[in-house]
Amino acid sequence: MLDPIAFSLGPISVHWYGIILGSAALVGLWLAVMEGKRFGISPDFFMDLLLIGVPSAIIGARLYYVAFKWDAYKNNLLEIFQIWHGGIAIYGALIGAIIAGYIYFRRKGYNFWRIVDICAPSLIVGQMIGRWGNFVNQEAHGGPVSETFLRDTLHLPNWITDQMYIGGLFYHPTFLYESLWNLAGLLVLLWLRRRPFLRSGELFFSYFIWYSIGRFFIEGLRTDSLAFTAPSWLASLINGLWSPMNVMFEAGSMDYGNVRISQLLAILIIIAAVVLIIVRRKKGWASERYSDPIRSTKTTAISTSEAGEGI
What we know:
It comes from Paenibacillus hemerocallicola. With 311 residues, the protein is mostly helical. It has two domains: 268 residues, no CATH class; 30 residues, no CATH class. The protein is built from eleven helices and seven strands.
């Protein structure tokens, strides 16, 4: 088994989880900076965005989780701030980062859709790398499976199979499924952003569509899902959509509820993203193409003012 602690500096223990998440953020920053250079955007812009976005994502991830697990926190409010005890949600992280990003882009005078398009590959590569933190911590896994399934069916190397042995049982390496799905998504996004038909905002929507499709099916394997009790017709609909997975996999157990929140949210996000792509094109709200120049209204205003002073 891997030791979750990478090294210690006196009383301070540095966890692999933090190192992996930090590495994910830096790789995402590098991708954004490289693409931003094509449009003449300063690397400092994305560095500042990272400094704002990461804390906002952590806060959003925690609040999202606490909101859906309120009964576990309402009698011990201090536990809400003890994030090292676990309990964050990726969709909450995205909500927090997007809100902070929107405010930051407006202050800098940039169009929201143009910048989030640049950041879309950074988001998915961050998730791709970040899932390996779950691997080290032996968390966010799926239901029990046989050792034969991992070694002979999936042909996983020993170092992954051994880490999936938890409490006397082997489990689905859902972290690996999602990481590989995100790797494929990264390649799709890098290909899409060079296509001449792509309009502003559509790479961002494509990221959400791709990620949500994978999250919907992978979430059904997990045993730690946030859930709620929904009408039977909704539960039947979601189970029916997930049913093709039954050919090879068995759904993970649920401690409570009959609908996984992440699965329902994934469906809603896919529908919303597709509708927005269609509506924005029909209404002319996506007239700019991804490859068009990106300009800041604040920079333009400063340049115009300086030109006037010269006259």
